Amino acid sequence: MAKIRRVRQHVNPLSSKYAESAIAPNWSDVFADVQRPLHLDIGCAKGDFVREMAQLVPDWNFLGIEIREPLVERALMKRDRDEQHNLHFVFCNANNSLETLLSSWPGGCPLQRVSIQFPDPWFKKRHQKRRVVQPELVEQLAKLMPVGAWVWLQSDIEEVCEEMCDRFDENSDFMRAGNGWLAESPFPVLTDRERVTAVEKGLPVYRAKYIRQ
């Protein structure tokens, strides 16, 4: 019987363990059609959201990235079991790997959508530099995304979503859509956290959309 690897709930992205950028796979081997539009889910956890999206939207490719390696290994096993050829997962630190991963895309990366959903809040002041949405991440996305592509942000912690919005507001390549928090997700699939928070408990979820200018 294969040994089940323990999954840490919190992983420090500033640790030396995560200092090296990920090595890009051969994308033509990963996806059946590399020129389909790409949806990138940053911090995909178990990958359930993108796995369901890949089933419902077969004419898009879906890529989930996650810093907890055991979760990626399990997500890839499920992907292979279900023979989903428009879905892939990569173990990496998003803040130092996006450009390395996606700049190698054959013919140029067709990145059209990015979702960052319910990221680790890192509540303590001294730990907030570990939050995933940093200026460097926004800059990488601006380089990789064409005009008209968009980023979806959501959290059940208003302070966390406000800070993510602040980082995108600081970058002139992105423009916020609408005024204030958006009422609904544009996706036909809910994340586990969204389902529990909004549907089962009836608590607010803070949502924002940023369009690449």
TrEMBL record:
Substrate binds at residues 124, 156. Pathway: tRNA modification; N(7)-methylguanine-tRNA biosynthesis. It catalyses: guanosine(46) in tRNA + S-adenosyl-L-methionine = N(7)-methylguanosine(46) in tRNA + S-adenosyl-L-homocysteine. Its EC number is 2.1.1.33. SUPFAM superfamilies: S-adenosyl-L-methionine-dependent methyltransferases. One of its GO terms (cellular component) is tRNA methyltransferase complex. PROSITE patterns: SAM_MT_TRMB. GO terms for molecular function: tRNA (guanine(46)-N7)-methyltransferase activity. Keywords: Methyltransferase, S-adenosyl-L-methionine, Transferase, tRNA processing. It comes from the Bacteria. S-adenosyl-L-methionine binds at residues 41, 66, 93, 120. Catalyzes the formation of N(7)-methylguanine at position 46 (m7G46) in tRNA. Belongs to the class I-like SAM-binding methyltransferase superfamily. TrmB family. This is tRNA (guanine-N(7)-)-methyltransferase.
